[in-house]
Predict the structure of Imidazole glycerol phosphate synthase subunit HisH.
Amino acid sequence: MIVVVDYGVGNIASVLNMLKRVGAKAKASNSREDIEQADKLILPGVGAFDAGMQTLRSSGLIEVLNEQVLNKHKPVMGVCLGSQMLGNGSEEGNEPGLGWIDMDIVRFEKRDGRKVPHMGWNEVNPQLQHSILTGIDKESRFYFVHSYYMLPRHAENTLLTANYDQQFTAAVVKDNIFGFQFHPEKSHKFGMQLFKNFVELI
């Protein structure tokens, strides 16, 4: 069972629909018991960093998430804001992140000809070999909507990069923890492949 953590912020219906399409058994829940019993977890999120962290903190779920992810090494996928919340903090606000991956969240600089937020389809470039990237190559395209991006402090945490007038980290990994800045639930066949790979992770 995959549990999509329902803390009140996120594109939960679309994530569940995509998981259903790849044959996964999944549900959304804010129950501590469901999180403890899940095989894998997905942390969604849309909106501002501080609001997301405040809402997650007020849900009372951070303790059980830390236990399941850090101590029991349960696979977890952060999506969009959910991926940024895996880090230390964001230039967007003052709230501390979960701190599961040593990275900062920084804003795209406004430059001539580059609009912020970055919105639309972008190809990604794998930086590591990993089973979660099965069938994902440099011609795979995903849908992005974001003004801030992940900046890992250690190169081994960068799973995918993309380019928006500069190379930036589009996905991160650390052991059982994965973060995807783009929206796989809105990325058609490429997103389906990514969710399928996550479902099949051992």
